[in-house]
Amino acid sequence: MTKNELENIVENDYALPEDLSEMESVRRVLSVFSSSDPELRDKLGYRIVYNWLLNKMFLTSKELMILLDESLSESKLLHKLGENEDDSVFLRSFTSLFIALVLIRDNKNPFLTYDQFSNVVNTLKYYCQNEMDQRGYVEGKGWAHSAAHIADALDECVRSKHATEDECLDVFHSIIALILNSEHVYNTEEDERMAIAIAAMLELEKVSLELVIQWFQNVKIQDNGFDSKRTNLKHLIRSLYFRLLNKDNINQEKMYLFVELEKKFNYYLKY
């Protein structure tokens, strides 16, 4: 779709293009997610799809499932997975945002079976284990932000009625995989987006605070001095601590566990 066509959709209160069905319209807008033009991809394309799916509630459950399957494929989320610092990241990253929108719809009006949901979690985990391009804002091309965008989808996985302790552990491992792949210190609040998903596990009482601490304790970071992985992990722990601080259903007397945990990954205290 052209920028003019997308602008007309926004200007006409997000009305569907003439002579196009909801499904065909969404597919055409999704095609701009691979663009390196930030206005086309983000300010227009994603904005329109968000409005159509969450405000106007376009698409049936069957249609959403079809698009979800396409999104989890090698033509979308897994497209050129493993490449670094090329434009393919935009399609992968914005596809993860679309997956998050579909999961939001499912969390409002469930249509995914457990097996379908499990496939989503497993595919997102595979993606996190293999995404190497974690740039935040790319000059001239706008937001890539793959770590933050996939964190939004992982958060919606946690909120699913299907999510048990096992799925929460998969989400945690997915987040840690992103951190272990990181080549730079997060500077566009990726750690805060990740913390939202882990905090949701605790706030929804799907896992205990002690269990999450144990999961963190089991994370292995090589002792090679100052590096992005250690720093990003500490930032995640700190973001999680402040997100949970003063939450009514979180045992505040046990919040000291996060302070002790942060020290485990603190380079200054180790040498």
Describe this structure in words.
The protein has one domain. The protein is 62% helix and 1% strand. The chain has helices at 3-11, 22-30, 38-55, 61-71, 88-108, 114-130, 146-158, 165-181, 190-203, 209-217, 228-244, 256-264, 267-270, and strands at residues 137-138, 142-143. A two-stranded antiparallel sheet has the order 1-2. β1 (137-138) and β2 (142-143) form a beta hairpin. α6 packs antiparallel against α7 (146-158) and α8 packs antiparallel against α9 (190-203). The longest helix is centred in the middle third of the chain and has 21 residues, at 88-108.
Topology:
Elements: H1 3-11, H2 22-30, H3 38-55, H4 61-71, H5 88-108, H6 114-130, E1 137-138, E2 142-143, H7 146-158, H8 165-181, H9 190-203, H10 209-217, H11 228-244, H12 256-264, H13 267-270
Antiparallel strand pairs: 1-2
Helix pairs in contact: 1-3, 3-5, 4-5, 5-7, 6-7, 6-8, 7-8, 7-9, 8-9, 8-11, 9-11, 10-12, 11-12
Offer a concise description of the structure.
With 271 residues, the protein is mainly alpha-helical. It has 13 helices and 2 strands.
Task: For the structure shown, list the relevant keywords.
single chain; 271 residues; mainly alpha; two-stranded antiparallel ribbon; 13 helices; 62% helix
Q: Enumerate the strands of the largest sheet in spatial order, edge to edge or round the barrel.
A: 1-2
Which spans of ≥5 residues are poorly predicted at pLDDT below 50? none
Number of helices: 13
- Overall, the morphology is globular
Helix content: 55-70%
**Whole-number radius of gyration?**
19 Å
Order of helices and strands: HHHHHHEEHHHHHHH
Q: How is the main sheet built?
A: 2 strands, antiparallel
The average pLDDT value, as a whole number, equals 95
Beta content: under 5%
Number of strands: 2
Q: How many structural domains can be distinguished in the coordinates?
A: 1
How far apart, in Å, are the first and last alpha carbons? 56 Å
Give the class from helix and strand content and strand pairing: mainly alpha
